[in-house]
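Translate sequence into structure tokens.
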Amino acid sequence: MSAQPVTQDVPTLLVKIFGKDRPGLTAGLFRTLAGFGVDVVDIEQVVTRGRITLCALVTAPSAASGTEGGLRATVHGWAESMRLQAEIISGTGDNPARGVGRSHVTVLGNPLTAEVTGAIAARITGTGGNIDRIFRLAKYPVTAVEFDVSGVATAELRTALATEAAALAVDVAVVDSGLARRAPRLVVMDVDSTLIQDEVIELFAAHAGCEEQVAAVTAAAMRGELDFEQSLHARVALLTGLDESVVDKVRAEVRLTPGARTLIRTLKRLGCQVGVVSGGFTQVTDALQDHLGLDFAAANTLEIVDGKLTGRVTGEMVDRAGKARLLRAFAAEAGVPLSRTVAIGDGANDLDMLNAAGFGVAFNAKPLVREAADTAVTVPFLDTVLYLLGITREEVEAADAEG
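Result follows.
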């Protein structure tokens, strides 16, 4: 026979204990309560720096099992014997139902200050939201905390907190609550200045002696001041005549962004598929795909004839529109709906991809991109994206241990 929910007219007791944590306290409290035949309605336990707070909402004792006064005396006596403090509050029914509209709010701080935490909490309640729970996702490489919020629509909360985050210069992500958050997904990221610390074309340009010219054009293109296709052709033309041996040298010079390996490894072990799309070149992205075990990779291809770069690219152009097209193609091949995709990028040519994905993350991005994305990360660690997806540092370490 299935249990019936506790109605609001049923007498209940909130039993709280707090003090120095040690093994057996939870079991001890419930063994004590068991002597009064109560049912557990709700329970929550938190341990912070060796101090336990344990709350149990239970039904009042039945007439056959004892009295409320007897339960109070027994629990207080047990708590005193364990050098704990106890508080028991009478009431009726279960906790009030959570409000409609449920969201996860993730805040990243390096460090996370009391001022920021208070401002975020105030803005949540100012929108009509209720903070149901707060817990820490990670303590390094940044502090990440998550607020479970109800009572306000996710879109409204995201807009309100985006304004607050900008004013506080802190990273805040707001996503819908629900089972779908934990479902396998597809993560697609840009390469230059996202997966890696470098701009690949500038590495090639350094070997051609035209690094400053190429860097200036690249910066203008990433700010959205130049058409990407035209700028790419102009930059690649400066590489005309380079020996193809430079490709191996550039591959060796590429530096992964801190946390890139952890991000990809963890996502893969949690059943996600991972891909990259780049306005750079397959001569580098193919090597990254093999090295990192990526599921998908696409980029432009430098044309090489008779061992020399011709100054042209071949194949279908991977530009701003092309990145969004490839995200959709990868999702279709992976069997993942677009709503379950995550895109990560930093430049103007990533905007269409970020907007097409279910969740777009601007990683150390230009202002134009930060404003358009669902959330922004301004710390230099790519694996902090995991926390925005609700993955804790402990889960990251557990995945590493299993691998």
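Note: DSSP finds 15 helices and 15 strands in the chain.
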